[in-house]
Structures
1.
Amino acid sequence: MKRTILLLILVNNFLLLWGQEEAVYLSTKEIKVGQPFMLRYELTYQKPQKFIVRLPDSLFAAKIVHRREDPFGVPFNGLEVLGVSDTTAWNQSVGLWSAELKLVCWDTGTLMLQPIPYWLDGQEKAFSGALITSTLLNEQTGRPLYDIQESYSISNTSKKQGFKPLLWSVSVLSILFLVLWIVRSRILRKQNPPAPLNLRQEALKKLANLKRKGLWLTDEKNHITQLSMLVRWYLSRRFNLNLTGQTRNSLLIHLQNQGMDSSMLAELTQFLERCESVKFAKIHLSHEAHEHLLDWVASFVEGLQENEIHGTND
């Protein structure tokens, strides 16, 4: 009798394990610095199973490779989570869990997205990681989703077939909604086309968003990292250089060769030193000091634009 019960438990666990189907999708494999992209997770499991997952809400765990000599990469804190949403749809005893994460990268290089752990009936598993490339070039839109994870077929064929009509209905409704949204967007764009932002306006908008978050109150190191990366991104776009991955001395030499004013170089040096002291020496700044750094970045962007205008007039 005990052997029969044990055999039934083993068979049930095997069927539950075989019946799950997981997948990971990316909206693109080549991203642009500062351009959001989507990451999607899907998992199909049966109702008796207990599913637990913890999705990141601030920074996504990743490693970055800047050089070929470092194939395993180094920890990267510049992959920000802009939004997270998840839902579960049930068809009798079969559930389809899906989650979408909106991410943005603040540096160039090859990124290795780390696996996301989850628990199914107390057993720890993980969604697979992903490999993407981040550049300063414009991203080509309209690419399909890439499946980067193999899937496992559901052993219960009748339940899988019963789930298809629901998926078809959701797909058709999603396509109709997308078509209506595209048509409406084009009509509104023709009626009132938005004025494109120039580089100065775009940089000041990003700075205002960072200031509004008030991240230095809860995660000072992350805030300083994003602030210094914003300045590097602006200088890279302004002088058509890749300065996001450069050291402080290398960055200053490049800007000196571009003819940047010596006083602005001196102020930029002090700013970078202050940021590095927080990131690496674990020095804590006061609230007023953080406000001063934010105001300085705004005046630096304005001042660089002013010098550009004066130089043109001369």
2.
Amino acid sequence: MTDRDLNRLLEAAKCPERTEDYWQAFPSQVSRRLRVRPAPVSMIERMGRFWHQSGKAALAVGTITAGLFVALQLLSPRENSDLQIRVLSESYRKLASLFPHELKGLVMESGQFRLQLAEHADVPTSPPLLLRLCNPSASKCVLAITFSGQEIELFGRRFEVLANGRDEIMLLSHEGLLRPDQVLSGEGLRLEAGWLEKKL
């Protein structure tokens, strides 16, 4: 069958006859069906949103880490410590705007960043805390920005961060309570803690 034959066949065919009621009800039936069936969101679209957010975080953390690594190689230990706090603070501000109410903590350990996010946007708004946890026997320190009431991981351990109205900040773990003026038994961990805005 050629296109010409098909055209002749279609032109010769008659439109099915419908009643006047059918044509009156037809637009409302179409509109109702369109409203009932929401457009399905494909798995590809859902994954695209996830990868878009993950890509932004990876780019931000990667850029900050590269800059920090170069700067840390060039500075003395005291300048290095101040720079780490400034870089971590700036990173926190940028990441908090990318992940509102999801950022539980930002940790810098051995020159590498670790982002700790909540599964849902349910992290309460509160003033950020700056923590430095040091293990003198291993000559290592971990720097973190987090919030009171959050559970974060430092040196491979889970700690709950607690702050009260008297500006006391402490870490709670299975080994016990660690305050800035104490040493956690076993490994000799030492804590320095304060409100981020007061440390800058």
